[in-house]
Specification:
CATH superfamily: ABC-type transport auxiliary lipoprotein component
Order of helices and strands: HEEEHEHHHEEEEEHH
Number of domains: 1
CATH class: Alpha Beta
Oligomer: single chain
Structural class: alpha/beta
Low-confidence stretches: 6-20
Strand content: 15-25%
CATH architecture: 3-Layer(aba) Sandwich
CATH topology: Rossmann fold
Length: 216
Protein backbone atom coordinates (compact mmCIF):
# COMPACT_ATOMS: atom_id res chain seq x y z
CA UNK A 1 0.00 0.00 0.00
CA UNK A 2 2.86 2.37 0.87
CA UNK A 3 4.41 1.90 -2.58
CA UNK A 4 1.06 2.58 -4.22
CA UNK A 5 0.37 5.79 -2.30
CA UNK A 6 3.86 7.29 -2.53
CA UNK A 7 3.66 8.36 -6.22
CA UNK A 8 0.19 9.82 -5.67
CA UNK A 9 1.31 11.81 -2.63
CA UNK A 10 4.36 13.07 -4.53
CA UNK A 11 2.18 14.15 -7.44
CA UNK A 12 -0.20 16.06 -5.16
CA UNK A 13 2.65 17.78 -3.34
CA UNK A 14 4.30 18.73 -6.63
CA UNK A 15 1.04 20.20 -7.87
CA UNK A 16 0.65 22.25 -4.69
CA UNK A 17 4.20 23.59 -4.93
CA UNK A 18 3.83 24.51 -8.60
CA UNK A 19 0.53 26.25 -7.94
CA UNK A 20 2.10 28.19 -5.09
CA UNK A 21 4.86 29.41 -7.42
CA UNK A 22 2.53 30.66 -10.13
CA UNK A 23 1.31 34.26 -10.26
CA UNK A 24 -2.46 34.69 -9.90
CA UNK A 25 -3.12 35.08 -13.62
CA UNK A 26 -6.42 33.65 -14.83
CA UNK A 27 -6.52 32.90 -18.57
CA UNK A 28 -9.39 32.27 -20.98
CA UNK A 29 -8.54 30.76 -24.36
CA UNK A 30 -11.29 31.55 -26.85
CA UNK A 31 -12.34 29.14 -29.66
CA UNK A 32 -10.83 31.42 -32.30
CA UNK A 33 -7.38 30.63 -30.90
CA UNK A 34 -7.70 27.06 -32.20
CA UNK A 35 -7.97 28.37 -35.75
CA UNK A 36 -4.70 30.33 -35.63
CA UNK A 37 -2.41 28.72 -38.21
CA UNK A 38 0.24 31.40 -38.65
CA UNK A 39 2.22 32.56 -35.59
CA UNK A 40 1.79 36.14 -34.45
CA UNK A 41 5.20 37.56 -35.29
CA UNK A 42 4.20 41.19 -34.79
CA UNK A 43 1.96 42.42 -31.97
CA UNK A 44 0.65 45.97 -31.55
CA UNK A 45 -0.02 47.15 -28.01
CA UNK A 46 -2.87 49.60 -27.57
CA UNK A 47 -2.36 52.43 -25.05
CA UNK A 48 -3.05 50.86 -21.66
CA UNK A 49 -6.04 52.38 -19.89
CA UNK A 50 -6.44 52.78 -16.14
CA UNK A 51 -9.36 53.35 -13.80
CA UNK A 52 -9.42 56.36 -11.48
CA UNK A 53 -8.75 54.02 -8.55
CA UNK A 54 -5.41 53.16 -10.16
CA UNK A 55 -4.18 56.73 -10.62
CA UNK A 56 -0.98 57.69 -8.79
CA UNK A 57 -0.90 61.27 -7.55
CA UNK A 58 2.28 63.34 -7.30
CA UNK A 59 3.90 63.45 -3.88
CA UNK A 60 3.55 67.24 -3.86
CA UNK A 61 2.15 69.89 -6.24
CA UNK A 62 5.55 70.97 -7.57
CA UNK A 63 6.85 67.43 -8.09
CA UNK A 64 7.30 65.83 -11.50
CA UNK A 65 4.38 63.63 -12.61
CA UNK A 66 4.95 60.10 -11.33
CA UNK A 67 4.96 57.11 -13.65
CA UNK A 68 1.45 55.78 -13.93
CA UNK A 69 0.45 52.10 -13.63
CA UNK A 70 -0.64 52.14 -17.26
CA UNK A 71 2.93 53.03 -18.28
CA UNK A 72 4.39 50.37 -15.98
CA UNK A 73 2.17 47.67 -17.45
CA UNK A 74 2.82 48.81 -21.01
CA UNK A 75 6.57 48.58 -20.44
CA UNK A 76 6.31 45.13 -18.86
CA UNK A 77 4.24 43.82 -21.77
CA UNK A 78 6.51 45.37 -24.39
CA UNK A 79 9.70 44.04 -22.82
CA UNK A 80 8.25 40.60 -22.12
CA UNK A 81 6.97 40.09 -25.66
CA UNK A 82 10.24 41.40 -27.09
CA UNK A 83 12.16 38.83 -25.08
CA UNK A 84 10.10 36.14 -26.82
CA UNK A 85 11.29 37.36 -30.22
CA UNK A 86 8.08 39.21 -31.07
CA UNK A 87 8.23 42.46 -33.02
CA UNK A 88 6.29 44.88 -30.82
CA UNK A 89 4.55 48.00 -32.11
CA UNK A 90 4.48 50.41 -29.16
CA UNK A 91 1.30 52.46 -28.53
CA UNK A 92 2.83 55.77 -29.66
CA UNK A 93 4.15 54.20 -32.87
CA UNK A 94 0.79 52.55 -33.51
CA UNK A 95 -1.03 55.85 -33.02
CA UNK A 96 1.27 57.56 -35.54
CA UNK A 97 0.81 54.74 -38.04
CA UNK A 98 -2.96 55.02 -37.75
CA UNK A 99 -2.94 58.82 -37.89
CA UNK A 100 -4.51 59.34 -34.47
CA UNK A 101 -3.41 60.28 -30.97
CA UNK A 102 -2.77 57.84 -28.09
CA UNK A 103 -5.66 59.15 -25.98
CA UNK A 104 -8.22 58.50 -28.72
CA UNK A 105 -6.64 55.15 -29.53
CA UNK A 106 -6.81 54.10 -25.88
CA UNK A 107 -10.60 54.39 -25.90
CA UNK A 108 -11.19 52.98 -29.37
CA UNK A 109 -12.94 49.66 -29.83
CA UNK A 110 -10.21 46.99 -30.21
CA UNK A 111 -12.14 45.21 -32.96
CA UNK A 112 -12.39 48.42 -34.99
CA UNK A 113 -8.72 49.08 -34.33
CA UNK A 114 -7.92 45.68 -35.85
CA UNK A 115 -9.50 46.84 -39.10
CA UNK A 116 -7.29 49.93 -39.15
CA UNK A 117 -4.21 47.88 -38.28
CA UNK A 118 -4.98 45.44 -41.11
CA UNK A 119 -5.13 48.29 -43.61
CA UNK A 120 -1.73 49.59 -42.52
CA UNK A 121 -0.21 46.10 -42.12
CA UNK A 122 1.05 47.19 -38.72
CA UNK A 123 0.75 43.85 -36.89
CA UNK A 124 -0.72 40.34 -36.79
CA UNK A 125 -2.42 40.82 -33.42
CA UNK A 126 -3.50 43.61 -31.09
CA UNK A 127 -3.02 43.46 -27.32
CA UNK A 128 -5.42 45.52 -25.23
CA UNK A 129 -4.99 46.06 -21.46
CA UNK A 130 -6.49 48.03 -18.57
CA UNK A 131 -5.35 48.59 -14.98
CA UNK A 132 -8.36 48.40 -12.68
CA UNK A 133 -6.69 48.65 -9.26
CA UNK A 134 -3.31 49.89 -8.04
CA UNK A 135 -3.07 50.34 -4.28
CA UNK A 136 0.28 50.94 -2.68
CA UNK A 137 1.25 49.17 0.52
CA UNK A 138 1.20 51.13 3.75
CA UNK A 139 4.46 50.55 5.56
CA UNK A 140 7.87 49.22 4.58
CA UNK A 141 9.16 46.05 2.97
CA UNK A 142 9.72 44.59 6.46
CA UNK A 143 6.40 45.56 7.98
CA UNK A 144 3.23 46.73 6.24
CA UNK A 145 -0.03 47.89 7.80
CA UNK A 146 -1.75 47.17 4.50
CA UNK A 147 -0.36 45.14 1.57
CA UNK A 148 -0.08 46.26 -2.04
CA UNK A 149 -2.99 45.28 -4.26
CA UNK A 150 -3.14 45.22 -8.08
CA UNK A 151 -5.66 44.15 -10.68
CA UNK A 152 -5.50 44.39 -14.47
CA UNK A 153 -6.97 42.71 -17.54
CA UNK A 154 -5.56 41.98 -20.97
CA UNK A 155 -7.02 40.71 -24.23
CA UNK A 156 -5.51 39.57 -27.52
CA UNK A 157 -7.24 40.18 -30.85
CA UNK A 158 -6.35 38.62 -34.22
CA UNK A 159 -6.06 41.35 -36.82
CA UNK A 160 -7.02 39.29 -39.88
CA UNK A 161 -10.63 38.73 -38.79
CA UNK A 162 -10.91 40.96 -35.68
CA UNK A 163 -11.47 37.87 -33.51
CA UNK A 164 -10.86 37.88 -29.77
CA UNK A 165 -8.61 34.88 -29.13
CA UNK A 166 -7.46 35.21 -25.51
CA UNK A 167 -8.19 37.03 -22.25
CA UNK A 168 -6.31 37.21 -18.96
CA UNK A 169 -6.88 38.76 -15.55
CA UNK A 170 -4.32 39.42 -12.83
CA UNK A 171 -5.81 40.07 -9.39
CA UNK A 172 -3.54 39.98 -6.37
CA UNK A 173 -3.30 41.38 -2.87
CA UNK A 174 -0.13 40.12 -1.22
CA UNK A 175 -0.68 37.67 1.60
CA UNK A 176 1.60 37.43 4.62
CA UNK A 177 3.62 34.27 5.13
CA UNK A 178 1.54 33.49 8.20
CA UNK A 179 -1.60 33.26 6.05
CA UNK A 180 -0.28 30.64 3.64
CA UNK A 181 3.30 29.41 3.82
CA UNK A 182 3.23 27.68 0.41
CA UNK A 183 1.51 30.61 -1.30
CA UNK A 184 4.01 33.17 0.02
CA UNK A 185 6.88 31.54 -1.88
CA UNK A 186 5.48 32.49 -5.28
CA UNK A 187 6.14 36.20 -4.77
CA UNK A 188 9.32 37.90 -6.01
CA UNK A 189 11.71 37.71 -3.09
CA UNK A 190 10.19 34.42 -1.95
CA UNK A 191 7.65 36.09 0.31
CA UNK A 192 10.37 37.38 2.65
CA UNK A 193 9.29 41.02 2.29
CA UNK A 194 6.30 43.17 1.45
CA UNK A 195 6.24 44.16 -2.22
CA UNK A 196 5.33 47.54 -3.63
CA UNK A 197 2.35 47.87 -5.96
CA UNK A 198 4.79 48.51 -8.82
CA UNK A 199 6.57 45.22 -8.11
CA UNK A 200 3.26 43.36 -8.10
CA UNK A 201 2.23 45.01 -11.37
CA UNK A 202 5.52 44.30 -13.14
CA UNK A 203 5.44 40.70 -11.90
CA UNK A 204 1.96 40.20 -13.31
CA UNK A 205 2.81 42.05 -16.52
CA UNK A 206 5.86 39.89 -17.17
CA UNK A 207 3.83 36.73 -16.64
CA UNK A 208 1.09 38.02 -18.95
CA UNK A 209 3.62 38.66 -21.70
CA UNK A 210 5.12 35.21 -21.15
CA UNK A 211 1.72 33.50 -21.46
CA UNK A 212 0.28 35.56 -24.31
CA UNK A 213 -0.41 32.97 -27.03
CA UNK A 214 1.37 33.59 -30.30
CA UNK A 215 -0.33 30.92 -32.38
CA UNK A 216 0.91 27.57 -33.59
Amino acid sequence: MRNTLAPLVALVLTSIVLDSCSPPLQETRLPALDTVTTPFAKVAILPVRQEADAHVAASRPDAAPPQQPSEMLENALRVGLGQRGVVVVAPDDLARALGTNPDDLAHADPSATCEQVAVHHAADAVLDAEVLRFRERRGSDLGAEAPASVMFRAALWRVSDHALVWRAEFDETQEPISANVLNAGRYPGGGTRWLTAEELLRWGGAETAARTPLGR
